[in-house]
Write a structure and sequence with these properties.
Length: 290
């Protein structure tokens, strides 16, 4: 597997097949908090990510998105305000690709700036993406991000739930599945769990499309894992290890917070194929990024 850079995107190539398209310089409007994102496929060519779905146009495949970074919204769309609900505010920030530190066959290290809508730099990020084959039909993408506060004041990382909306703790590395995945099954290490996974900690969750054409397994690889999960199936397909689901984390100027995850893409039996390998993939990611 190798990453090929071309223009405004990277392509992950597996033999003669494209497994992922990573868009470096998105062109979406400011309202959607534009950010780099990855569109993923199985090794047999099945798409497993959605892009700008009609219900939430700011959902972009696999991406890192944070709805509450102090006063800033790096998720997209309206901001949840306690006592008022969702309100469209002039606070939609953007993630801007700056450079690559290194590129190897299956790994890229990227530097990004997180820019507020008013133009100031709020965070600087070092992001590492690594692709790994698992078997003939399954592969994994590891994502590690270190976010440093370069603002003058502390920043509170949170979610709509920390602002008062129940069961809406989304924040972090977020996978949005295609519309055809809606209504699929969500499994945890102890078995089927469905949307009841939302708000509960687990080392990994797996999502299987209703037609069983594909599945994804997502593992939390952050230092404080396992975090609570934001998980949906009935309304749409989505998985997100969400460390700021229930409580905010304050990050002082100059300090950093680390978010990391491994997503395994494959057939419907992806959990059976990959669950035993997840601890090793997580350990490799944490060791490589130390």
């Amino acid at each position: 597997m190798r990453f090929d850079e071309g223009g405004d995107r990277l392509r992950l190539i597996d033999g003669n097949r494209e497994l992922a398209e990573y868009v470096l310089r998105p062109t979406e409007p400011q309202l959607e908090s534009p950010r780099p994102y990855a569109l993923l496929r199985t090794r047999t060519g099945e798409p497993v990510t959605g892009y700008r779905p009609g219900d939430h146009v700011w959902h972009k495949g696999l991406s890192l998105a944070l709805p509450v970074v102090g006063p800033h919204n790096f998720w997209g769309g309206p901001t949840y305000v306690r006592g008022r609900g969702y309100v469209q505010l002039p606070n939609n920030g953007a993630q801007v690709h700056r450079s690559f530190e290194a590129e190897r066959a299956g790994t890229v290290v990227e530097h990004l700036d997180w820019i507020a809508e008013q133009g100031e730099t709020v965070l600087r990020e070092r992001r590492t993406l690594t692709a790994t084959p698992v078997d003939d039909e399954t592969w994994a993408l590891s994502w590690h991000s270190s976010l440093r506060n370069v603002a003058d004041d502390p920043l509170a990382f949170g979610s709509p739930t920390t602002k008062g909306r129940p069961d809406a703790g989304y924040a972090g590395i977020f996978w949005r599945g295609p519309e055809s995945f809606t209504g699929g099954a969500i499994d945890a290490p102890d078995g089927p769990v469905g949307d009841a996974a939302r708000g509960e900690p687990a080392p990994w969750l797996a999502f299987v499309a209703p037609g069983r054409e594909a599945g994804v397994l997502m593992a939390d690889a952050a230092p404080a894992a396992p975090a609570p999960w934001f998980a949906r199936s009935a309304e749409y397909a989505g998985l997100n290890p969400a460390p700021f689901f229930h409580t905010e984390t304050k990050v002082a100027p100059g300090d950093a917070v680390v978010l990391a995850a491994v997503i395994v893409v494959g057939p419907a039996d992806v959990a059976a194929r990959a669950a035993s390998l997840v601890p090793g993939l997580v350990a490799d990611l944490q060791e490589a990024s130390a």
